[in-house]
Amino acid sequence: MTIRRALGSDVKKLYELEKKLFSKENFPLSQSSIRYxxxxxxxxxxxxxGNIVGYILVLIKRKSAKLYSIGVDETHRGxxxxxxxxxxxxxxxxxxGFENLxxxxxxxxxxxxxxxxxxxxxxxxxxKEFYGDGCNAYLMGLDMAGFKINI
Length: 151
Hints:
Elements: E1 2-5, H1 11-21, H2 31-40, E2 42-48, E3 51-61, E4 64-72, H3 81-95, E5 100-106, H4 110-118, E6 122-127, E7 137-143
Parallel strand pairs: 4-5
Antiparallel strand pairs: 1-2, 2-3, 3-4, 5-7, 6-7
Helix pairs in contact: 1-2
């Protein structure tokens, strides 16, 4: 498995993965959004045997970083791909001088919440009816200064 920055030529495959991973209520990215993020934010993908099996997208605004999306193809879950993507982006953000990373996650997504907690994220607050289906979200944050990967 390799991790690399997404390229314009990856848009179609990333969009196909996005459609598999996220329902309308969970704000899936469009092809034009993917193209925009490749140019303007940090969008990295994980490849195995030439296939995109996961990705991570971090939005950058001045000195603020927000983990917008992370996804792993169902056929490749359980291989610690999400953990590796997080480790990679933590190092990338630290090298760019970022000190904090925020994210929103559905309160009913126990697997993701567990992963985020294991990597040092803490719940900051509840965002009421954040998702299109009315589900609440946790706003979680990570202090990049002292993160440790313990998965």
